[in-house]
Write a structure and sequence with these properties.
The chain has 313 residues and is an alpha/beta fold. 42% of the residues lie in helices and 14% in strands. The protein is built from 12 helices and 9 strands. α1 crosses α5, α1 crosses α12 and α3 packs across α4. The chain is globular.
C-alpha cells in the first residue's frame, strides 16, 4: 500500500497497526525521530485548516523531517499545469505528500502519478486521517473491543458521515448515521461500500432519520458542522432547518449509555449542531480527538514510508 487515498483502502490490520503506533507516539512523540531525517514532506492545502495543518507539520517534525506547506496559489496548478505533472515534480523533491482539497478525484490522480506516498488529509467525500484519530481516541477511552457498543453520528450526510460508515464497517462495529432524508443524507455509494465491507467483517451499519432512535444505547454520539466549506450560503436556512432535529444536546446524550461520550471533528458551532453544555461538558472528548490528529498522521507516515500497510485485499 503506497498511499492512503480513501478510508475504504484500509484493512482492519492496517487500522490496528496505525492506532497502536499512534498511541505510542502520544506518550513518546520523538521515538522515531530518524524516520524522516534529511527528508521533506509536501503539505498541499486548497482548503483552510487548523488541525490538519498543525497536526501534519508537527507530525513531520516529530519524525525528524522538514514540512513544506503549499497553498494552491503557490503551485502552477493554478495556471493550468496538470495534476499528473505536479505529482511527478513533487515526487522529485519530497518524500511524501499530504493533501487537503475539494475533489476526491484530484487526490486519486495525485496518488496514481506520484512515486511517493500520498495521504488524503480531507476531501469533499472522505476524511481518513480524522477517522483514524477518532478511533484512536475511542480505543484509548473504551478499550479495543467494540462488542456490544453502538456508535452514532448525527447531522449532515457529508464526508464525515460517509467516512464513519466505512470505518465502522472496517472495524466490525455497530455504526448508525442519523440524517434527514433526501439531499442531506449520506452518499448512496458510500453506504453501499460500507455495507459490502460489513458483510466481510460482521459489522452493522445503518442510516436512519430519527435522532432519538440513533442515540438510544449509543456509547459515542458524534456530530460535525452543518455548513461545510464549499456549501453555498444560499442553502444555509434550508439546511439548518432540515438538520435542527439532529442537534446533540443533553436530552439526546441521556439516551446513550451511562458511559456515553461526545465527539466532534471540529471546528464547532455551539448551539447549532451541539449544545454548549455537551461540547464543553465532562463527557466531551473533543480535545483528545484533536490531539490525536498529530499522532495518527505521524503513524500513517511512519508505516507508509516503511511499506508496512497492506491495504484492503
Amino acid at each position: 500500500m503506497k498511499d492512503l487515498l480513501r478510508t475504504e483502502h484500509l484493512s482492519r490490520g492496517d487500522v490496528d497497526t496505525i492506532l497502536t503506533t499512534a498511541r505510542e507516539f502520544a506518550s513518546n512523540p520523538l521515538k522515531a525521530i530518524q524516520t524522516l531525517a534529511g527528508k521533506s514532506v509536501a503539505i498541499y492545502m486548497t482548503k483552510p485548516s487548523t488541525r490538519t495543518r498543525l497536526a501534519s507539520e508537527t507530525a513531520v517534525a516529530h519524525l525528524g523531517g522538514h514540512p513544506i506547506f503549499l497553498r494552491s496559489d503557490d503551485l502552477q496548478l493554478g495556471r493550468g499545469e496538470t495534476i499528473a505533472d505536479t505529482a511527478r515534480i513533487i515526487s522529485g523533491f519530497a518524500d511524501a505528500m499530504i493533501i487537503r482539497t475539494f475533489k476526491q478525484s484530484d487526490v486519486d490522480e495525485l496518488g496514481r502519478f506520484a512515486t511517493i506516498p500520498v495521504i488524503n488529509g480531507l476531501t469533499d467525500e472522505d476524511h481518513p486521517t480524522q477517522l483514524l484519530a477518532d478511533w484512536t481516541t475511542i480505543f484509548e477511552h473504551f478499550g479495543a473491543s467494540v462488542a456490544g457498543r453502538k456508535f452514532a453520528y448525527f447531522g449532515d450526510g457529508n464526508n464525515m458521515a460517509n467516512s464513519w460508515l466505512i470505518m465502522g464497517a472496517i472495524m466490525g462495529a455497530h455504526v448508525v448515521v442519523a440524517t434527514p432524508e433526501g439531499r442531506f443524507a449520506p452518499d448512496l455509494s458510500a453506504i453501499e461500500r460500507a455495507e459490502a465491507i460489513a458483510k466481510t467483517t460482521g459489522a452493522k451499519v445503518e442510516v436512519v432519520h430519527d435522532a432519538k432512535e440513533a442515540a438510544r444505547g449509543a456509547s459515542v454520539l458524534y456530530t460535525d458542522v452543518w455548513m461545510s466549506m464549499g456549501d453555498p450560503e444560499s442553502e444555509r436556512s434550508e439546511k439548518i432547518k432540515a438538520l435542527s432535529r439532529f442537534k446533540v444536546d443533553d436530552s439526546l446524550m441521556q439516551l446513550g449509555t451511562a458511559d456515553a461520550v461526545f465527539m466532534h471533528c471540529l471546528p464547532a458551532h455551539r448551539e447549532e449542531e451541539v449544545s454548549t453544555s455537551v461540547i464543553d461538558g465532562a463527557r466531551s472528548l473533543i480535545w483528545r480527538q484533536a490531539f490525536h490528529r498529530r499522532t495518527t498522521i505521524q503513524s500513517i507516515l511512519f508505516h507508509l514510508l516503511r511499506g508496512e500497510l497492506s491495504g484492503r485485499q
